Amino acid sequence: MRGTRILGAAALALMLAACARQPIDTGQGYSGGGAGGAGGIDSGMIGTGGLGGGGVLPGTNIGDTVWFLLDQSTLSAQATSVLDQQIGWLQANPGRIEIEGHADERGTEQYNIQLGARRAAAVRDYMVSRGIPDSRISTNTFGRARPIATCADESCWSQNRRAVTVVAAGAGV
Fold this sequence. Notes:
- By secondary structure, the chain is of the alpha+beta class.
- Strands 1, 2, 3, 4, 5 and 6 form a 6-stranded mixed sheet that branches.
- The radius of gyration is 17 Å and the shape is globular.
- It is built from 4 helices and 6 strands; from the N terminus they run H-E-E-E-H-E-H-E-H-E.
């Protein structure tokens, strides 16, 4: 009986470890908003983008990711603080960026695509309102297709509700 409990505890520990930041690139994307474009690796964009998030803008310690609450596309005070730092970097570095919108796995695929698009648009609109030309920004939504973490609880879902600023190759590098 004791051996079974130890084995069960070990299995649980392995399952929890599997939930931690496991990027999955399905190669699926949905172009939406802004100047559009598929973005990601094939379009000359660099950065962690949908393949991780939680990275930084080139040559800085400025985060490339902002997170959202469940079913929300409203920017929090913490998100606008990160975006203000990104805007400062963008004002000093020419080039294009892409904002990727992401959602967690709950909800339908279509709902999550639309939610990801609203999140990317919220970031774009904030940047434009602070002086970054709209012509420098494209948006893309991946909905739930590119999770950072995959497990069925809030610890993973909260990591997947995000928008990531991906910098075009050569910009600021």
